[in-house]
Amino acid sequence: MEPENSDPGEGFPDEDDESTRTTLARVLASEITGPVFGLPFFMSVLKSRLMRHCNEVGPDVPQVLLHLAEGSVLDLCHIVELSPKWIAAAVFRDDADSCDKMDVEFVPYELIIRVTLTGRSAEGPRRLGFDVNRSVAALEAATAPT
């Protein structure tokens, strides 16, 4: 079975777009002293790692786990929104095998202590994706000069 979203870069900002580069530059400048797994990580590092991972693991699909400081682990289905201070993540419930059974968690970046990227069988309905339109709009509003 083919994963629903077979392009791991789909949904990420186009790094060749001038306004995206400007927004990313503002975000990076403001986040240099921020959390390790903050906005720049999700906008650039995770994207490139996912693309590399997909090219290396063959038919497996990526699975992203967010480890939180209080001990819980979130199994990421997709990113709903990225803001300068938090991530809205659609996560699979423990018993879920599809995105139909998920919760949306709003997590401050400071709580994310580790991110695990692994592969799992492409068999089954699970997928990984991102809603870039909401995130880019939120970023532009939050990082606009005042």
Explain how this protein is built.
The chain has 146 residues and is of the alpha+beta class. It has one domain. It is built from 3 helices and 6 strands, in the order H-H-E-E-E-E-E-E-H. Strands 1, 2, 3, 4, 5 and 6 form a 6-stranded mixed beta sheet that branches. A hairpin with a 4-residue loop joins strand 1 and strand 2. It is globular.
List the helices and strands and how they pair.
Layout: H1 18-31, H2 39-56, E1 61-68, E2 73-82, E3 86-92, E4 102-108, E5 112-120, E6 129-130, H3 132-143
Parallel strand pairs: 2-6
Antiparallel strand pairs: 1-2, 1-5, 2-3, 3-4
Helix pairs in contact: 1-3
Features:
alpha+beta; 6 strands; disordered N terminus; 146 residues; 6-stranded mixed β-sheet; 30% helix
Count of discrete domains? 1
User: Regions with pLDDT < 50 over 5+ consecutive residues?
Assistant: 1-5
Oligomer: single chain
Number of E strands: 6
Name the helix and strand elements from N-terminus to C-terminus, one letter apiece: HHEEEEEEH
What proportion of the residues form beta strands (DSSP E)? 25-35%
Rounded average pLDDT: 75
Number of helical runs?
A: 3
Terminal CA distance reads: 49 Å
Q: Give the helix/strand class.
A: alpha+beta
